[in-house]
């Protein structure tokens, strides 16, 4: 199979989701959402509405404006990374990718299955500038770079947490094991790209021939092969773009730390970059695990409160931090909804592409 990165003939598209599986995910999303709402109410009750209100007042309107600007800069970094991920002869401008990223984030945040359609929504938002399959391919490429840097960020956060704060031995061994596995996978991924090994697709083929996970691999193994071709072809034609894209994705995480540090500096005198880093890394992990929960209701507060108590950030600081950031998400989701209406995007149309 050719490795040339021509998105129009690779057939790269979102992995189809059957209506049956979609409905199961919908039920799971609703259950997780209800559980999240319960957690949110519990943490607000345990900290106290008065305490949370006082902390929010410390931030002020101007402080919230700063947070909105920081988050826009985060959107900008991913929009720039996506722009670099588009194949020749096509190209997108920031005026195309920035609104599309905002739309994708809005979709991802506000509905239980948003994570499954946010990438498709981005591609559809720029469908008048590039063919849909080109948009989907470039979104997939950028997402892989994002996944790579996020994995490194999470490993660094876990290592920092274990080395600076007391944790039970069982948790220490478990987290160390996970870090080791992630590290090996990252190194293997880098080597695979440089050497252009089709290790992942060959493994899927081997499992399929032996009757293992045949339901998943019936179509999945071809998707894995296509994505391997996509990345290998991109590396061969645009190797100089790899470092800039990785730096932009890294900047996304650094700006997240800056955002947490700024909020903590307004809420407490005991603020440090270490605490901000740990809170942001935990928040990113929760975002990945519980993305089916709209706006991460409850689960984000739980994670932030756990880290806040561990690093002695202060009573209710973690919960207040999560609530303030949730306000920022609500604002940008509102902007995303306005863009969705303006561009005439349809949730039904996006889902049809996912379930086709």
Protein model, in words:
The protein has one domain. The protein has 14 helices and no strands. The chain has helices at 7-10, 19-47, 49-84, 94-110, 114-125, 132-164, 169-195, 199-209, 214-237, 242-267, 273-289, 299-310, 317-343, 347-355. The model is unreliable at 1-13 (pLDDT under 50).
Task: Offer a few descriptive terms.
mainly alpha, disordered N terminus, 14 helices, 356 residues
What order do the helices and strands come in, and which of them pair?
Elements: H1 7-10, H2 19-47, H3 49-84, H4 94-110, H5 114-125, H6 132-164, H7 169-195, H8 199-209, H9 214-237, H10 242-267, H11 273-289, H12 299-310, H13 317-343, H14 347-355
Helix pairs in contact: 2-12, 3-4, 3-6, 3-10, 3-13, 4-5, 4-13, 5-6, 5-14, 6-7, 6-10, 6-11, 8-9, 10-11, 11-12, 12-13
Task: Give helix % range.
Answer: over 70%
CA radius of gyration is 21 Å
Rough shape? globular
What letter string, H or E per element, gives the SSE order?
Answer: HHHHHHHHHHHHHH
Estimate nothing, just give the exact number of structural domains: 1
Separate helix tally: 14
The major beta sheet can be summarized as:
none
Mean pLDDT over the residues: 78
The structure class reads: mainly alpha
By DSSP, the count of extended strands is: 0
Strand content: under 5%
Low-confidence parts lasting 5 or more residues at pLDDT below 50?
Answer: 1-13
Query: What gap, in angstroms, lies between the N and C termini?
Result: 25 Å
């Amino acid at each position: 199979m050719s490795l040339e990165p021509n998105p129009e003939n690779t057939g790269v598209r979102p992995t189809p989701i059957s209506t049956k599986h979609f409905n199961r995910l919908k039920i799971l999303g609703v259950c997780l959402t209800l559980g999240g709402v319960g957690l949110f109410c519990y943490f607000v009750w345990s900290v106290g509405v008065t305490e949370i209100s006082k902390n929010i007042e410390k931030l002020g309107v101007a402080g919230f404006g700063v947070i909105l600007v920081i988050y826009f800069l985060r959107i900008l970094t991913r929009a720039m990374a996506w722009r670099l991920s588009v194949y020749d002869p096509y190209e997108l401008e920031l005026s195309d990718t920035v609104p599309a990223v905002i739309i994708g984030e809005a979709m991802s945040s506000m509905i239980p299955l948003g994570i499954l359609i946010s990438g498709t929504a981005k591609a559809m938002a720029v469908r008048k500038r590039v063919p849909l399959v080109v948009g989907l391919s470039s979104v997939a490429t950028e997402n892989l770079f994002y996944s790579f840097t996020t994995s490194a960020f999470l490993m660094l956060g876990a290592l920092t947490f274990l080395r600076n704060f007391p944790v039970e031995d069982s948790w220490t061994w478990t987290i160390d094991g996970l870090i080791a596995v992630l590290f090996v996978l990252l190194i293997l991924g880098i080597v695979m790209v440089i050497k252009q090994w089709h290790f992942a697709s060959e493994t899927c083929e081997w499992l399929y021939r032996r009757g293992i996970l045949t339901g998943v691999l019936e179509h999945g193994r071809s998707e894995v092969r296509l994505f391997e071709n996509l990345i290998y072809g991109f590396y061969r034609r645009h190797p100089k773009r790899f470092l800039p894209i990785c730096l932009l994705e890294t900047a996304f995480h650094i700006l997240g730390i800056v955002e947490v540090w700024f909020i903590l500096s307004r809420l407490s005198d005991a603020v440090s970059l270490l605490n901000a880093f740990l809170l942001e890394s935990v928040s990113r992990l929760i975002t990945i695990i519980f993305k089916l929960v709209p706006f991460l209701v409850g689960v984000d507060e739980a994670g932030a409160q756990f880290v806040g108590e561990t690093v002695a950030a202060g009573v209710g600081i973690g919960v207040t931090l999560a609530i303030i950031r949730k306000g920022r998400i609500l604002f940008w989701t509102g902007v995303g909804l306005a863009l969705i209406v303006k561009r005439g995007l349809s949730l039904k149309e996006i889902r049809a592409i996912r379930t086709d």
